[in-house]
Amino acid sequence: MTAPAPTAPPFRLSGAQLGLIAANFLMWGGFFAVIPLVTVHFVDELGWAAASVGLVLGLRQLTQQGLTVFGGAWADRIGPKPLILAGCLIRTLGFAWMGFAETLPVLLAAALLAGIGGGLFDAPKNAAITAVTAPEHRTRMFSLTSISGNLGMVTGPLIGAALLGLGFRTAALAAGSVYLLACAVLAATLPHFRPAAVTGGGLDGLKTAALDRRFRRFTLVLVGYFLLSTQLNVAVTLKAVALAGPGATGPLYGLSAGLAVVLQYPLLRFVERRVRTRVALVAAVLTVALSLGLMGFAATFGQLLACVALYSLGTMLVYPTQQTLTARLAPPGLTGSYFGFSAISLGLGGAVGNVVGGLLIDAGARIGLPLLPWLSLMAVGLLTALGLRWALREVPTREAAQG
């Protein structure tokens, strides 16, 4: 008689896991309390060109994700906790400085400082989640972390919009202070540990990730997806404000994040049981592409919100799946390096997306073709989905990885 298969231990959250979930909520809440307002304040209120503000946001993104590549490698050497705490403190200074920016160079400097802070805590945070969570529970832990981030996306814009009545400076200072609270939470709950020492850590770990052909291919193709995901902060925000005024940012982000809070975990569990990982990712990117194309035809704020709901259904599946695959593909002791290398896709896609989104909006308005940005973004999404289908041929599915 065959012995029954061993059952996985129950999934119970530890103090470190709860601290990471809570801190992630604070980080995302602080981020979305001020970043959407940058576009509203400097473009709509001060009359700056959308492309110039998009350039600032894109360089912030590129700085953060570029430094994240090395932040992950450093986490393999010294452990994630000191890097996460330092990053929170630096981001506090960057966001607070944004509130005092009156010229483009000052705004750019403040945004770059905020990007440096994010680059220090981004990959180490994912490495910490991996370290404190058993492999069989990582998909759920990444999903719960993502849900906490989406809760921050719900509350952040609402608080930011309310504080905007007191001035952009007040909103920026409040957003920065949230990162001090996140720093305190993680200082109290996250243990200081170093990943198991292995040969090839640090910069050698980045080299290992870069030479991993299937992981490199997977990472680079995702650049196209992150170009699309950034548009919620640029093109979609600008269209929402044009249709419903500055107060539209709250409902916009509230709907996107609220749907993720309610649906992401059950949808992810449903997909895990019934759909192969590569099929789910390709379908999710196609959904995002279609929703962006439909946004070009939205004539009312309600129609735009319907497109945002479709957009959210696609985006909510990507994060936990990508993070789980990254943790699965990383060799022992090189988790931080792999998470750091994976930031290249978000860095390039986010930087290009912020700039291109603003340029396309300006170009469409200049030539009298408002559909230009939306059809262009949809085309990028279709090409990305085809690229993922090709790249994921050699990335193991969950079923294959676990036998």
TrEMBL record:
GO MF annotation, one: transmembrane transporter activity
Primary localization: membrane
Bilayer-crossing regions: 20-40, 106-123, 144-165, 171-190, 218-238, 250-268, 280-313, 338-360, 372-392
Domain Major facilitator superfamily (MFS) profile per the UniProt entry, residue ranges: 17-399
Alphabetized UniProt keyword annotations: Cell membrane, Membrane, Transmembrane, Transmembrane helix, Transport
Membrane topology: Multi-pass membrane protein
Keyword Zinc annotated: no
Record localization: Cell membrane
Cellular component terms (Gene Ontology): plasma membrane
Entry-linked PANTHER family: MULTIDRUG RESISTANCE PROTEIN MDTH, RESISTANCE PROTEIN MDTM, PUTATIVE-RELATED-RELATED
Protein name as annotated: DHA1 family multidrug resistance protein-like MFS transporter
Organism: Deinococcus budaensis
Phylogenetic lineage: Bacteria, Thermotogati, Deinococcota, Deinococci, Deinococcales
